């Protein structure tokens, strides 16, 4: 669990640093704020179509999927670095690389969360969740519905409304 969490923390930190560097490099190459925004857009476009990756992550070896994503990220970053050092980097290199890393980012989240769930379940690590379960109409939020379906045991912390009865929702 700690290894997976640590890898996630390092990967996320590197992604944010890489986004900063690519933005500055794009601005230096093109002198266009629009193209800086476009590079960000390309990075997040795969998330619009990533709805099937959660299902995919349950069918494929998650460890291989996660490792493959890290290899793609490292190869992209190394390619960018070599192109920058040799002075031959062009905008399209940054655009294509951003899109590739966007695909990796899209698959990383569901894969890592699924793996954490498996580890927590296998090692019998208690998971504490705090949050709002229902909307103002008393309907479960989708995330809450999934958590409750997966829970082996549920212990609710009772909360009292200002009127004196059990609090059941936030209005």
Walk me through the structure.
The protein is mainly α and 171 residues long. The chain is 69% helix and 0% strand. Helix 1 packs antiparallel against helix 5 and helix 3 packs across helix 5. The longest helix has 32 residues.
Could you outline the blueprint of secondary structure elements for this entry?
Blueprint: H1 2-30, H2 33-48, H3 53-59, H4 62-86, H5 91-122, H6 142-150
Helix pairs in contact: 1-2, 1-5, 2-5, 3-5, 4-5
The gist of it:
The chain is mainly alpha-helical and 171 residues long. It is built from six helices and no strands.
List keywords for this structure.
69% helix; mainly alpha
Strand content: under 5%
**Number of helical segments?**
6
> What coarse outline follows from CA principal-axis ratios?
elongated
Q: Average pLDDT, to the nearest integer? A: 81
Summarize the amount of helix as a percent range: 55-70%
Distance between the termini: 37 Å
Oligomer: single chain
Largest sheet: none
Number of strand elements: 0
In angstroms, what is the radius of gyration?
Answer: 21 Å
Class per helix and strand makeup: mainly alpha
| SSE sequence, one letter per element | HHHHHH
Residue ranges: pLDDT <50 for 5 or more in a row?
A: none
């Amino acid at each position: 669990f700690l290894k997976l969490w640590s890898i996630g923390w390092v990967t996320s930190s590197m992604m944010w640093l890489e986004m900063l560097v690519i933005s500055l490099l794009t601005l230096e190459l093109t002198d266009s704020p629009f193209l800086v925004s476009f590079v960000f857009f390309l990075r997040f476009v795969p998330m619009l179509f990533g709805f099937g990756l959660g299902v995919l992550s349950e069918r494929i070896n998650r460890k291989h999927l996660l490792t493959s994503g890290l290899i793609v990220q490292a190869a992209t970053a190394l390619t960018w670095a070599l192109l920058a050092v040799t002075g031959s980097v062009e905008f399209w290199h940054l655009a294509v690389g951003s899109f590739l890393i966007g695909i990796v980012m899209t698959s990383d989240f569901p894969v890592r969360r699924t793996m954490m769930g498996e580890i927590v379940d296998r090692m019998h690590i208690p998971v504490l969740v705090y949050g709002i379960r229902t909307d103002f109409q008393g309907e479960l939020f989708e995330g809450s519905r999934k958590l409750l379906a997966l829970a082996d045991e549920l212990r609710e912390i009772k909360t009292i409304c200002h009127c004196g009865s059990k609090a059941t929702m936030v209005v």
